[in-house]
Amino acid sequence: MSLKKLFEERSDIAWKANMPSVSIDCVVFGFHDSSLKVLLVRLKDQPLWSLPGGYMGKKEELKDAAARILNERTGAENIYLQQFKVFSKLNRSEDFFKDYDDTLWHKQRFLTVGFYALVNYTDVEPVIDELSDACEWVDINTLPEMMMDHREIFDKALVTLRRQLNYKPIGYSLLPEEFTMPELQKLYEIILDKKLNRGNFYRKMTGYDILDKLDEPRKGGAHKAPNLYRFNLDKYKAALKDGLKEGW
Amino acid sequence: MSLKKLFEERSDIAWKANMPSVSIDCVVFGFHDSSLKVLLVRLKDQPLWSLPGGYMGKKEELKDAAARILNERTGAENIYLQQFKVFSKLNRSEDFFKDYDDTLWHKQRFLTVGFYALVNYTDVEPVIDELSDACEWVDINTLPEMMMDHREIFDKALVTLRRQLNYKPIGYSLLPEEFTMPELQKLYEIILDKKLNRGNFYRKMTGYDILDKLDEPRKGGAHKAPNLYRFNLDKYKAALKDGLKEGW
């Protein structure tokens, strides 16, 4: 069935079930193979990609709605979610819906609340739902063209991540439980969009006293086995409460 | 006329003019006499205080609506405004409107978008509108009890201000054009909620190279006249772009 037909079929129920004016778009970040990725969807019959999103039930809180939307899309539960901005431009979706009837739910004016989500890459099984024909992880350095204002929403999410690096558990949420110092540094470099000095990074990170070094280094590989670390969640949370003190 | 009657009178027009589901609440900060103040309103016939707020026109963008609401309330133009969070709790206003008809515009479920505003205290002339019987500056350390979730909105605004101190022009927007180093330090201490060492503060602040020292010290007073400074806006903005590097 075409996307148009599917929207039309769903319009009546959407009018009854959802809060008017408010939609949700999610920028889902995952870290894998030394690169930061974002989960994108391509709706049926569309050339452009979009962020996973949806609407908010009349009796639902905003964050619960975002968690539900992401759970349907990824299978993951207890996803780290943070709202970061409302996007309210007039005619955000005018072009997209120009061939639709004015009474269509989806064609109304929506303010969209942007959430960023941090997931453990391996926990996610991207789901292609009835409205879409693709749902994939994409490296943030090779993003395809996106529909409506979704690129702007993505850009803002990344800037927010950068600014919140010192007071949200971003490393903890994106990395697997055990990781090496170079892996942690790589994540910071991608989010901050700059190279960091290895010695300084090591010194600052250990200075914060938020990591536990494991007794056993990582097995395998020809070189000297690298040390493994894991976040000490109690200490990490305590340190983030006042914010880590130094810039990068 | 009673508040109830006024709401009832305005309900029909509000249904026609505004975006459903979305309201705006503003936390307006001003700095005066070495204390940080917030602008509060007391609606007619109400014991509790509230944040100045309102609704968003169908053809209006969010920030423009917040600017309009604040202009009506303060007379000030070009106010520094920053949205910081959407508050979406169910039944936020249920108690407040329990004696009203269910069809009343104001009784519907609203998600409210919190904005903080930074104003030059002397630019503001608080306006008591038809719905309220008080509109006053209150020291943030002696806040009265507030209605609905307005205290939670205020608290979140203050935390946001604290976290954005290194990358938003907060000092510039709150201080008069010319100020002394102790005045700037006092503002930082209030926002950060901690005492700062005078020598360290001076060293860091001058190290950022964002202030111009005036040739003439402040006139009057028995003591040695203190030096006056003003933000160098070009340098300040350039430095904030990447974020000031050190914690406080």
UniProtKB/TrEMBL annotation, chains A, B:
Top-rank taxon, per record: Bacteria
Pfam families: NUDIX, WHD_NrtR
GO molecular function term, any single one: hydrolase activity
PROSITE patterns: NUDIX
SUPFAM superfamilies associated with the record: Nudix, Winged helix' DNA-binding domain
Domain Nudix hydrolase: 19-160
InterPro entries in UniProt: NUDIX_hydrolase-like_dom_sf, NUDIX_hydrolase_dom, WH-like_DNA-bd_sf, WH_DNA-bd_sf, WHD_NrtR
CDD domains: NUDIX_NadM_like
Keywords: Hydrolase
Name this protein carries in UniProt: NUDIX hydrolase
Organism: Flavobacterium zepuense
Lineage: Bacteria, Pseudomonadati, Bacteroidota, Flavobacteriia, Flavobacteriales
